[in-house]
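stuck on this one:
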Amino acid sequence: MGYGLPAAIGAKVARPEPLVIDIDGDASFNMTLGKLGTASQFNVDEKIFLLNNDEQGMVTHLLKFYYDNHFCHSHNLNPDFVEASRAMGVQAESCSDVSDVNAKIKWLLESKDPAILEVKVAPKALSLPMRPALNFTSSTMATRSTKQSGLASLACTECRKQHLKCDARKPSCSRCLQNAFLCQYLPSRRGGRRKPRDLNRRTTLSHSDELNNSVILTNDHVSDQPNTPDSASARHVSIPAGIPPGQVPWPMIPPRHDLNQERLEPARDPWFHDDRFLRLFYENFHVAHPMLVPSASYHDRQYPEFLQLVVNFVGSHYVPSSTSQQYRDKVVAELACNSDRSHCMVQAWLIYSIAIYARGEPQEAQDAFSRAVEIALELGMNRVDFAASLNSESSLEAESIRRTWWELYITDVFMAAPFKGSSFQCSTMAPEVALPCEESAYTGTCDIPTPRKMLDFKRRVFASEETVFSSFSYRIEATTILCRALVLNRLRDYHRDHLQAVENALVSWVNHLPPKKLDIVDSYGNIDEMMFQAHMTISYATMLLHLPRSDLQSVLSQADDQFWPSASRHLASTLNRPIHSIKATEASRRISDAISLCPNVPKHTPFAIPALALCGMIQLATSIKHTEECFDHHYNRVTLILGCLKSTKRIWGLADSAYNSLRASAGEALSDSMERWCTEPLRKLFPTDSTPSSTDRTHQPTRPTSAISDAQDILFPPIVPGFVDPTCYSDAFFTSIPDFDIS
């Protein structure tokens, strides 16, 4: 329905020479009536033959023959099609007398511009019946092509997108086979809430069972005896009285009491096949941790059931009404009892560990992550030849395996950040695995380029020409620098050059970025999630490196706060604490600036939550140390972080604890400043003297007048400074420092 008019416009534009006629019903025509404006605007010379019976014909047909004439919601209240067409610049005529039909049709065909002929027919008039074969099985009907039966019971996703008929052939329909499209069959979302796929799937019958269970069209009533596998009696579908044999109305749907007699497979949990969870997983979590194959290849990949359970479990967190705890119990039971030791099990444990970490359960997350690392090292996923040994080097599966190892590498570092005693399991190994490709190439629609080596990435600094690597590669290097900062903070005795080396790595990482990798948002508004994480990681490492050595440490230091790093006397010299404070504050500013560009935190990695929490706390501590002249500046950044954490805590429990910690600290630390901020700025808006004295005027510098300056005075009147937040910076930081010692 609704296909005829736009299809006719497209056909006429594609082939202007032939005559194009759209034979349409009133209900179908109503759905795309506005397309007449398109035909009129571009003078698309199509002809429309409109049959108007003020009914939804297909629905009326079904209600008449199969629901005892219980007509419900089948009558249309149509507009005046003739006047509506003329209002959009299309010629239109109406015909309600049989004797006028020939003349009206002649007028329609001879019209030079788009035209419509409305033919009014009797209400409840039925459409012409289809003629399916009398003896057919359900399996035959499902696979019969559209040309043979006139309809298909399902359509692939590509045909749905283009609103084209699909012949439903498997494994690929004719159109996808001809155009080399990826052919997938997904259940329709129409008709209410989705039922489990298996409830609509019939068991495969042997050839003899198909013969015994064939649908025989007779005038007999259906027996009330349930259909059992041992039953040799045929199933019967009644034909409405008055329909001659061999001419069966379309569609051939059995009465409702016969639908329950089909043999069904045992049903599995409904949430297992809820496509919402899969879609939400790929729209949110996969964007931040792209280790599985792209969404277009997910169904073809046929992942093991335990991995599909994990994917649905993670996706369930993005549905407000879902009870993810029940799903978690199923996932834990499945993973614990499964003896699989493949890379799919590594992916399952890894994704599960990140989700559990985001839920605010660090110990359980560490245990799950350790299982993933154990299996990965047992398989040798850290070796350069592992991915190529299972698949070709340029295949999607090989790229997925390489990405899985690097996600293990990154997760290892971020999970160890809040825990002072945890050890690194993957980060200390030699980087043999090839680097992932660019995200634009990892879509499943093109070949994977030849992977690059980590050694090539490190040599880019000395290359004569600048080479751009994938965003994932810069994310990996940023994580390596974060790991170095964490290790340095745990050392009790180190040389000043160790600290200087990490600081040099942080600064040089930014300096060696290609111009196209400096920004996280392109000119079209698309976010490069991998570069967002890379920039966030560098800023997070900078905060962790400088905060314990700064004079901000004592302002908000809390022994039980997992987001605030602990201070040790051996970490910093009191002579240089202000410098460390400036660097920590600047890093927190960069994080708040980045998150203001893309504040949808649920689409980012859960590892951004600790960085955001620390960013807000540093801004809060800086506002306490600084004068109140820049209070607005820090206050706005703190409220930005609080808002992002508030929107994320509905999904992840870790954000809830971060939000509550920052909110409590801000409420206590800023209460006095907020009271003064709400009253004192009002007095600053109004000068004490209403007009300057003549003496003041003589000392005021005169500005040369010009047409431009006068126009600027008119267009841009003076702005009261009280409405503008003052910027926050330290003059000392921009002056030359004779002895820059950061030890």
About this structure: The radius of gyration is 35 Å. The chain has a mean pLDDT of 75. The longest strand covers residues 47-52.
